[in-house]
């Protein structure tokens, strides 16, 4: 993921036909309701694109649910209830991935028997897999929750969960599996954490406005966020539109070093992130651009790195563990951080090395950390504009 911030740039109706086609493909004509808005286009890894007009920024593809909970009034009960179907869908999708994955691993792994679900649970597994493959999911009942709990407790499913990096298993899997009784209650109303853990592939566009320093505070910028889907093949269609960009926030999920892309299971996610970061750094339109790198999902990274060697990723193949516990976690994190720093300077021309480059350790599900990070970004960008205006 990444975020781009630019100074004023007007969309001209006479812009190229190609640009118009990109807009049309997004179904994003609503972005043109103000002439001074930057055209928004999607990115494969979830870039956030923004422009500045007076005190307005435009963002693309950050977690809009997180932003609303942190910087606005949050969700009322009706909005929370609207996520019930999403959360229940996540539950069914998760258990289907695990059951189907156990059968696949039982066929392909050398020690195949540990992935074989017990005979008494196979019927449950088949039923839940069928439900998970539907277009419309039933509401999660106590009976279905008990079936899922039974299957989740099966040693073969637990072994499969331990091999989740080989499957397209969502990060929310364990959280929802451990809360099935509450999620299946007839009077269930999702909590803030439930909403934050919920995962849904973005279709269409969601807009939200917020201020990193607090609602209604005039001292900070007002941000407009657009949450959209990403596409790997669209980059060259929009990159030339961002001349004059003053800041880029690039979000890298450091916990995904042992996972593959959803759309290409032969491609390691960290290698894709590396290539994307390298590509963005080398774009001529960003030659004077400040870069802020968010090394995200640290909470997952610190648990995983003690179990899954960092050097399973080609980019980190020269990594050598140095300790255990918290010391090893910090050692591994600093190694990853250094890799990104090296890539930044390798991909930055000598006359551009003095541009601002900052790295932040982030955990997207930690409200305090996300809020603190956005405040730092807000302050950095405002100081940058004051400097450019000769006021600093």
Automatic annotation (TrEMBL):
Recorded protein name is Guanine nucleotide-binding protein alpha-1 subunit
Give the superkingdom in one word.
Eukaryota
């Amino acid at each position: 993921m990444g975020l781009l911030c630019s100074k004023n740039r007007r969309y001209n109706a006479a812009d190229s036909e190609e640009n118009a086609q990109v807009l049309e493909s997004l179904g994003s004509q609503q972005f043109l309701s103000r002439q001074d808005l930057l055209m928004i286009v999607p990115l494969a890894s979830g870039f956030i694109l923004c422009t500045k007009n007076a005190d307005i920024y435009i963002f693309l593809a950050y977690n809009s649910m997180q932003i609303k909970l942190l910087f606005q009034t949050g969700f009322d009960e009706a909005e929370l209830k609207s996520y019930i179907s999403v959360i229940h869908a996540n539950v069914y999708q998760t258990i289907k991935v695990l059951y189907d994955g156990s059968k696949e691993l039982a066929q392909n792994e050398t020690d195949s028997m540990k992935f074989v679900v017990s005979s008494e649970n196979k019927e449950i597994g088949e039923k839940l897999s069928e439900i998970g493959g539907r277009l419309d999911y039933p509401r999660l009942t106590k009976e279905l929750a008990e079936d899922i709990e039974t299957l989740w407790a099966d040693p073969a499913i637990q072994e499969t969960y331990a091999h989740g990096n080989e499957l397209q298993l969502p990060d929310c899997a364990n959280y929802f599996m451990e809360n099935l009784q509450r999620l299946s209650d007839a009077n269930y109303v999702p909590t803030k954490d439930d909403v934050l853990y919920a995962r849904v592939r973005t279709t269409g566009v969601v807009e939200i406005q917020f201020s990193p320093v607090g609602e209604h505070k005039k001292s900070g910028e007002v941000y407009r966020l657009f949450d959209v889907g990403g596409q790997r093949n669209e980059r060259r269609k929009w990159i030339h539109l961002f001349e004059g960009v003053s800041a880029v926030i690039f979000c890298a999920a450091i916990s995904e070093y042992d996972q593959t892309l959803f759309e290409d299971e032969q491609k390691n996610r960290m290698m894709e992130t590396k290539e994307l970061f390298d590509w963005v750094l080398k774009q001529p339109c960003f030659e004077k651009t400040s870069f802020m790198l968010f090394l995200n999902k640290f909470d997952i990274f610190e648990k995983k790195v003690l179990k899954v060697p960092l050097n399973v990723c080609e980019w980190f193949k020269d990594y050598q563990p140095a300790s255990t516990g918290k010391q090893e976690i910090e050692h591994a994190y600093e190694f990853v951080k250094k890799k990104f720093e090296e890539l930044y300077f390798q991909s930055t021309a000598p006359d551009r090395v003095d541009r601002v480059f900052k790295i932040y350790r982030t955990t997207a599900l930690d409200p305090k950390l996300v809020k603190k990070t956005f405040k730092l970004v807000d302050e950095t960008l405002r100081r940058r504009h004051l400097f450019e205006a000769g006021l600093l």
